[in-house]
Design a protein that fits this description.
Strand content: 5-15%
Structural class: mainly alpha
Helix content: 40-55%
Oligomer: single chain
Distance between the termini: 57 Å
Strand order of the largest sheet: 1-3-2
Number of strands: 3
Length: about 100
């Protein structure tokens, strides 16, 4: 990626990123971040902008955050929830059906 300080709208920046994410994805990267890393943006009026340099920096910091997270002693599965079994799903459907019927819906 070529680095310069030209401001790019999030739509323009999205076209510069491998995989061509949508502009809303870049908005999410800027506002919520990924693995604790946010994309630096500037607001001019009601539009948001970033630069190629910031896109590259975001990618580098994101890769480092993933590496750090992967290297941590905490296993990845500790943050995941096991999927429901068929029996659990059936039981939940029965409970929901009874609740709806009780309300007269």
């Amino acid at each position: 990626m070529q680095t310069d300080n030209k401001y790019l709208s999030l739509a323009e920046a999205a076209r510069e990123v491998p995989g061509r994410p949508s502009p809303s994805t870049l908005w999410r990267w800027a506002t919520r971040g990924v693995n604790g890393v946010t994309l630096r943006t500037w607001r001019f009026g009601d539009r948001f902008f970033t630069t190629r340099e910031e896109l590259e920096e975001f990618g580098k910091r994101g890769a480092e955050a993933r590496k750090t997270r992967r290297d941590s002693s905490k296993p990845h599965s500790a943050n995941t929830v096991a999927p429901r079994t068929d029996e659990q799903r059936d039981r939940d459907v029965q409970r929901a059906t009874k609740a709806v019927e009780a309300r007269g819906v």
